[in-house]
Specification:
five-stranded parallel beta sheet, globular, alpha/beta
């Protein structure tokens, strides 16, 4: 076994600042696990750049009736078309007063489950608070655990 630390990208879109704050909380949770992620607003992240990462985490808010925000459509399509078996996770913020709470998280989750190795999802009501820190820690631990158990790891370590 090696002590290789995975390259982690957090790519997010935020309209109100809630998802941006949650992205930072997830990044902080990874730092507490010894991983320094790269955090990008989706508009600053070239989609071709994502192929350099072992783990890609997507942060989204939900638009209208449970839809993915327009600025994340390109990321959704790129991840749907990628052929590298990435470890992924999706997190987001929403408001329970809407019929489809965090619907964009669910849409990403379903696609990532089919097109990647989905490790975890996390939904937070509106602005994250200190009460969400343990949930972010659990999310980060789940993602890193899935990475450590990814297919091919044991066979690569034994060669």
């Amino acid at each position: 076994m090696t002590n290789y630390k995975p390259n982690v990208a957090i790519v997010y879109a935020s309209a109100t600042g809630h998802t941006e704050s949650l992205s930072q909380m997830v990044a902080d949770a990874l730092v507490r696990q010894g991983i320094q992620p790269d955090v990008f607003p989706v508009k600053e992240c070239g989609l071709a750049k994502l192929s350099r990462y072992d783990i890609v985490l997507v942060g989204t808010y939900t638009w209208m009736n449970g839809e993915i925000p327009k600025q994340l459509h390109g990321l959704f399509e790129a991840m749907e078309q990628q052929d590298k078996m990435l470890i992924t996770g999706v997190f987001g913020t929403g408001d329970r007063c809407f019929a489809t709470y965090c619907g964009a998280v669910d849409l990403f989750r379903d696609m990532l489950h089919a097109k990647s190795i989905l490790a975890a999802t996390l939904k937070v009501e509106q602005m994250p608070s200190t009460y969400d820190r343990p949930r972010c820690d659990a999310f980060a631990k789940s993602v890193l655990m899935k990475y450590s158990k990814r297919p091919g790891l044991l066979s690569a370590a034994n060669t």
